[in-house]
Amino acid sequence: MNNSAIHVEKLAKRYKIGERQRYLALRDLLTNILKAPLRRRPPAEFLWALKDVSLSVREGEVTGLIGRNGAGKTTLLKILARITRPTEGFAEVHGRVGSLLEVGTGFHPELTGRENVFLSGAILGMKKPEIVGKFDEIVDFAGVETFIDTPLKHFSTGMQMRLAFAVAAHLEPEILLVDEVLAVGDFDFQRKCLGKMEQVSQSGRTIIFVSHQMNHVRRLCERALWIDGGKVRRDGPAREIVNEYEASCLNVKADDLEHSPGPIAFTRWMVENSQSNQLDLDRCPDRIVLRFGAYAKKEIRKGILFIALRSGDNTILWSNLYHDVQINPGHMDFVHTFGSLPVNPGIYFWEIRIFDGHEWFEYVQVPEMSVISNTDSNVYEHLKGSLRLDASFDLQASAVVELGKTCP
Amino acid sequence: MTKSVENGPEVIRMSDSSVGVIADSRYLNSERPFLRIAPPRGWMDLSLVETWRYSSLLYFFVWRDIKIRYKQTAIGVLWAVLQPFLTMLVFTLFFGKLAHVPSGGLPYPIFYYSALLPWMYFSGALQGATNTIVENQRVITKVYFPRVLLPFAATISGLVDFAASLMLFLVMMVFYGIRPSPAILLFPVFLLLAMLTALGVGLWLSALNAVYRDVRYVLPFLVQFWMFVSPVAYPSSLVPAKWQWVYALNPMTGVIDGFRWSLTGSGPAPGAMLMVSTAAVLVILFGGIVFFQKMETTIVDVV
Q1: Residues in chain B closer than 8 A to A198 (CB atoms)
Q2: Measured distance between the N- and C-terminal CA atoms of chain B, rounded to whole angstroms
């Protein structure tokens, strides 16, 4: 199994800046044409989402693509999936490609679950007999038998998601391109997806997997590519590259700061005492301190600070607003102290942003905190909630109270 | 796969007999397709072979369009019949009985309905095709398939409404005692011409609509305008002979005259004018494919 499945050479993709945001209207086109003799059109601004990317993926290799938002990971995936065309260079792909860029591609709310399985399956590249053959398996995996002939709009979000993932999980391409689909659903569902992914990754198929969840990359991938600014920054064994990437995320380099657009940018963050993004509940002293480092280019008067803790499925567990924050130019730390953080082990995200009177500026690399503990609670994994509260239980004998009589 | 998969912890222990492994052993025996992804070059790289490979997806798109169209409608397919029928009544009353438009000896209801059949199909399919890229933008930014399938599916799914309204026409033929002539054998040719016209124009408009959103506002006006420059409300013989060839550059001229002639058997067989219309269709269609293809590579970056 040493044949190359994907070979990419000097691949580049250029976008016109603003192309995605603005709807063109014929009117604009006409006025541009009319004005053209009078005024020179401003030179178009371009953004290279990818530049000079070369790589090779062996058959059966499971590769993680990591990097910040906007680094070019998804663009690379979209080129390999043939959704968008490269501007320069080329890619050679050996084998049937299946792309999974979102959960539920092609789902239509008016159609029934059954109809949607067929439609989504066909859009993702399955032939009709293939879908017929796997239909029962798909429905079984999703656990929605009773609702399968109800319109999708009557499904709960969770059920839709399960059905969508079940369809996707039964795709059988030789090369699978996956983008962040595991980041949806509740914890239990994520586990299930991850299990399925693990199983697929051991089946000898070639997989390219974009993720921001570093623990998933560690668990699923043998190799990782770190994409940064449209280029391959590092390429190697997953564990090694992920560690390097995580280390860099905690500290933003000084020269990156000068290029940040806003008056303030977050630079690093950590859980104090652990010097990392890990919170060990067992070693936790009586207080937990989080440090968010930032660098301000200029003074912000009456800034507003927003901080929120989100669970793995993006629910806000806690948040707070601080008004009238005076920020002086230079480096600073926003320090938050918690008496305790009553959460169960798992992955959590911090959201932190500052309002300077005009705009919100947030920490672009969503700070991911992994909470660990060895003294785990006695709850079955899939029934576990986010909160760990100080609760006690007591079984007390009580006098029988006859119905209808009021208690003394 | 068994139900035990439902419980979280079991997931990790799923057996090897599951889907992935089966797929693996199967593809090792089959030939691996090879694909080269490169920047768009040239003015024509529609691969008919590849489009054909996606024919089952085309089937699903058509099926979806039809399903969705009739979900939650009280009288369903009756709409498809009501629309041309009511229009026919209005035309018969105002253009026929009051304005005395010549109908070449045909009863007015037959004269108008035989033209409204292809016209309603054309305008419906055109509207479907124009909006299809924008309506499916979520899908086309997430998965690849030849984009041309979308407007193509819109022109095919319009045939369901067409078939329903054709049924009513057959009833009307019996009612007015009009016997089909051998010309009816050529009816499928004119239907094909109508489909190609809808597809050709639909390709242009759907690609334009993806980039310039005001196309959808222009469309109702365009359709109305187009109807009056087509022989729907009047016969094409009203147009002076020396301008007939210009008039026939509108492909719907050939289509509508062809429908009237093949269904009712009255009037002269369309000859030179049909040739001009057919040539116009082919030019529009070919240009539409090239234009669509050109836009296809950038549509995803724009929608």
Answers
A1: 12
A2: 40
- In the stretch 340-369 of chain A, residues with CB closer than 8 A to chain B read none
| CA atoms within 13 A of residue B280's CA, in its CB half-sphere | 21
Q: Does residue A85 belong to the interface with chain B, where contact is any CB pair within 8 Å?
A: yes
Residue ranges of the alpha helices (H) in A127-237?
128-142, 157-169, 187-201, 214-220
Nearest CA of chain B to the CA of A258: how many Å?
29
Query: A116 to chain B nearest CA, in Å?
Result: 9
List, for residues B13-28, the tens digit of each pLDDT value.
Answer: 333 333 333 333 333 4
Residues contacting residue A306 through CB under 8 Å, at least 6 positions apart: A319, A320, A321, A322, A351, A352, A353, A354, A355, A360
Three-state secondary structure call for residue A252:
coil
pLDDT at B5: 34
Q: pTM of the prediction?
A: 0.73
Which of A 20-39 lie inside 8 A of B, CB atoms? Answer: 20, 23-27, 29
Q: What is the ipTM of this complex?
A: 0.79
Give the best residue of A105, A112, A123, A202 to mutate against chain B (max B CB count within 10 A).
A123
Judged by DSSP in three states, A297 sits in coil
Of B274, B244, B239, B237, the closest CA to residue B259 belongs to B274
Contacts of A127 in chain B (CB under 8 A): 56
Q: Degrees (nearest 5) of the Cα angle A89, A92, A95?
A: 160
The residues in B 21-60 lying below 8 A from A, measured between CB atoms, are 21-24, 26-27, 32-40, 56-57, 59-60
* Pick from A100, A10, A39, A139: nearest CA to B39: A10
Asked if A292 is an interface residue toward chain B (Cβ–Cβ < 8 A), one would say no
Contacts of residue A105 in chain B, CB cutoff 8 Å?
Answer: 138-139, 142-143
- pLDDT surpasses 60 at A237: yes
Q: Report whether A351 contacts A292 (CB < 8 A).
A: no
Spatial neighbors of A126 by CB under 8 A, at least 6 apart, are: A134, A170, A171
pLDDT per residue as tens digits for the range B177-204 = 988 888 999 999 999 999 999 999 999 9
Choose from A83, A111, A131, A177 for mutation: most chain B CBs within 10 A: A83
Distance CA(B290)–CA(B293), nearest Å, equals 5
Q: Would you call A195 helix, strand, or coil by DSSP?
A: helix
User: Tens digits of per-residue pLDDT, A154-206?
Assistant: 988 778 888 888 888 888 888 989 887 655 555 666 677 778 878 888 888 89
Average model confidence (pLDDT) for chain A? 81
The CA–CA distances, whole Å, from A80 to A206, A210, B257 equal: 13, 13, 49
A346 by DSSP, 3-state: which?
strand
Interface of A with B in 139-178 (CB under 8 A): 140-141, 143, 151, 169-170, 172, 174
A107: contact with B, CB 8 A cutoff: no
